[in-house]
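Incident log, structure service

09:12 report received: a user says their structure output differs between two submissions of the same chain.
09:20 pulled the input from the user's history:
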Amino acid sequence: MSHLDRLRAVFRSSLNLPADADVDGLEYRVLPQWDSLAHMSLIAAMEDEFAVMIDTDEMIDMSSFAKAAELLEKHGIGAAAH
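09:34 re-ran on a clean worker, output below:
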C-alpha cells in the first residue's frame, strides 16, 4: 500500500468517512466532520501511522488532503515514490 493510500485510510478513519470516500480534494472545515477536534485526531493518527512528529506550524498549515501529503513528503515519506 502506498503512503498516499495509507494517508487516505487515516483520513477516512479519523473523519468517519465511508471506505470508498474520495478524500483527495478534502479541505479543512469544508466537510462538517473535519472540525478542530477532528483535526487533532487526524494529526495524532498521522503521527501514529507514519511515525512522524508534526509541529504546531505544520498542524495549522495542514488545511487539506493535498497539504497533508506535502507534509509527509517534507518528513521524507513517499518522496522516493516520485
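09:41 both user submissions now match this output. Likely a transient worker issue. Closing.
09:42 reviewer note: The chain has a mean pLDDT of 93. The first helix runs from residue 3 to 14.
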